[in-house]
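#help-structures
NK: newbie question, is this the right format to request a structure? protein is Membrane protein YkvI
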Amino acid sequence: MWKSGFKWMFLIIGTTIGAGYASGRELWEFFGHGSGLAIVLFVLFFTVSCNVIMTISHKKATTEYRPVLKVIVGKKLLPIYDLMVLLYLYTTTVVMLSGSGATGQAFNFSYSWGIAFIVIMLIILFLRDISGLLSINQIILPVLIIGLLYVLLSFTIDEKLDLFSHWREQNNWTAAFPFTALNILPLIAVLGAVGNKVTSKKEIWVASIGSGLILGVVTYIYNNSLIQIADELLLYEIPLFAILSNYPFNMVLFMSVLLWFAIFTTAASGILGITTRIRDYFKLPFWLLVILILATMIPLTTVGFSTLISILYPLYGLLNLYVLTRLLLFPIWNNMEK
């Protein structure tokens, strides 16, 4: 039970901590000053949402997200949100590819080489179908979370920062709604693809509570660190590098590798959601479908990493508020419809 619960927990975290989150760009876009309460609310909303999504996918033993989405938004709105989920997964995976290009530039590799590398690795990963993603998440994500927390706590100690110095400023509490809404749509797609592999309700509780608490702690500490260097963030496409600016090269290298792995796991989750949704229409091997999807994404990466995040993420956060509302009120309206 615990082992399976942790497997799903890491899948959830791997889907959420991508280029936007791990780089700090997504957090700064939504949070910043006065966001302590917003992050607490995010933990609550995120935990409930994950629990509901996993419960539905488990009951229906799903292998793709449409049956889960149908329960959440209803039959009439299903085609609209089905299209939105696909568009979200597609565009955010493009953001991940762009993030890989931006990470490569930090080490004087060309933008295109960074993109080519992640594309090749994604193809290799999906030669093993879905099992490859689940295996790699359990290896990479504990290292990523520990590494990120180490850097953020080291920064907090070195700069003598108070983790609760801004707690009285809570004017940005409403940011919890679009931020959670942004992050639950890919979870519907990914968790909907593995519903038939979940075996018990205990796994669901371990996964939803564990992922919510871990993401909440990392988000709070990360946001607190970014507040201290707010004036410098305009100079960096990836805010994490602003935090690392006074650290030795070895630390920068280590965190850049972890950042790339965060990008990789989220890109893989996006590809998983898209491929499981459309593979019934194409009588092709899973890996070949992955190659064809990635081939259509590469030209779109020329837009740029920070530009994509600043435009797409707030937009998706607003569009998904209805889905979030349905998930949070699921016990009420589900009982009324029975």
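mod (FA): yep, format's fine, and the tokens are attached above. The chain has a mean pLDDT of 83.
NK: thank you!
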